[in-house]
Amino acid sequence: MRSEDYLAVIYRLNEAGIEARLSFIAENLGVKASTATRVLSKLEREGYVVKRGPVYSLTQKGAEKALKIVCNHRIVERFLTDILKVDLWEAHNLAHELEHVDSFAELLDEYLGRPSQCPHGNPVPTRVTEYAIPLSSAGKGAYTVVRIGEVGGLVDWGRKLALKAGDLAEVSGFEGNDIIVSVSGRRLRIPLHIARLIYVRKVVK
């Protein structure tokens, strides 16, 4: 685990509108809280993060580093899925291994014609993306899945639900803490804490 992975996780949490608390950071990285505390303290001393109460934030220096890692990750994913035809979910894991080589990602970016999104629909940072709302806020009706976030086990949930960017989702309502959605004839119950990290756009008929 590299220290810059912590910066990328804080970026992704903030992107999803989630406060970057120690427990969330550790959970997303699959490390113990004690390990995360040690690395975050080092990053704070080096000027990459600041801690205000229980919440960690990126400094400008940290944000620049995180932005590059996330950008690299999403470009590498695009290459793996579009060109090498790697499975969508496996590409996410492989991209974590390759995202740290800037020169490699820059070559792929140029080769791909500077894509604006990763295969999950998440925007390549600083590039224009389309408007979308959280699935948890959607009323009844038809929606296109625009993107699936990269935090809170979303990649695993996406694999489990066989849900991907571009899918047509018909929202029928809510049951308890779940939203009920039909995708390709399949009835899915998606917990609201997961649905809030899946972004959709209303289909205009």
Largest sheet: 6 strands, antiparallel
The assigned CATH architecture of the largest domain is: Roll
Give the neighbour order of strands across the main sheet. Answer: 3-8-4-5-6-7
Shape: globular
- The CATH first-level class of the largest domain comes to Mainly Beta
- Superfamily (CATH H level) name of the largest domain: Ferrous iron transport protein A (FeoA)
- The helix count comes to 8
Tell me what portion of residues adopts beta-strand conformation: 15-25%
Number of domains: 3
Global structural class: alpha+beta
Unreliable stretches (pLDDT < 50, length at least 5) are: none
Strand tally:
8
Approximately how much helix is present in the residues? 40-55%
Description:
This protein is α+β, with helices and mostly antiparallel strands. It folds into three domains: 3-58, Arc Repressor Mutant, subunit A (Orthogonal Bundle), CATH 1.10.10; 63-112, Diphtheria Toxin Repressor, domain 2, CATH 1.10.60; 133-202, Roll (SH3 type barrels). Helices cover 44% and strands 21% of the residues. The protein contains eight helices and eight strands, in the order H-H-H-E-E-H-H-H-E-E-H-E-E-E-H-E. A hairpin with a 2-residue loop joins strand 5 (168-175) and strand 6. The N and C termini lie far apart (47 Å).
